[in-house]
Amino acid sequence: MDAKFSPVEGQKEERDSPSATSRDSKTQRGYRFPGKRILKGYRSFQDVIVSGSVVASKPLRCFFIIEKESAGCRVGFTTRKTRTKVERNKIRRRLREAFRQECHPLDEACRKKNVRLSCVIMFVDTKSRKQQKYTCIKRAIQQIILELTRHVMTAEFKE
Hints:
alpha+beta; 5 helices; about 40% helix; about 20% strand; 4 strands; Ribosomal Protein S5, domain 2; about 160 residues
């Protein structure tokens, strides 16, 4: 077999691994971001942005409201003006994936305090290509989730 056509070690494993977006794999099904956890609708976004508090970690800004309702966490993702739709969708996919991987402490805190957290995570710095990298987004999401968890645990409600 010719050397230039043989697969490089590591590429074969990468090619054989299941896709993160495949819906037919039973092993991947439990790791999807459920639709009921996504904040939807213009009015919902507007309520959170206008009347919510803010936590920031460059290049992200997170607006949030903590309500004494059923326990849970709903989140919406948005970006400021980008050059193309492709770039905007890529940023939103990266935001969603980073949040999905890191949201477990926040879910536990919401369940423990029996509160509902509604938040909008906004990607602000659209000019810098370096800020759009997944590692930068993931680090910012980790910091935001840490702050949100702290806010949820210290939330006080009048009865």
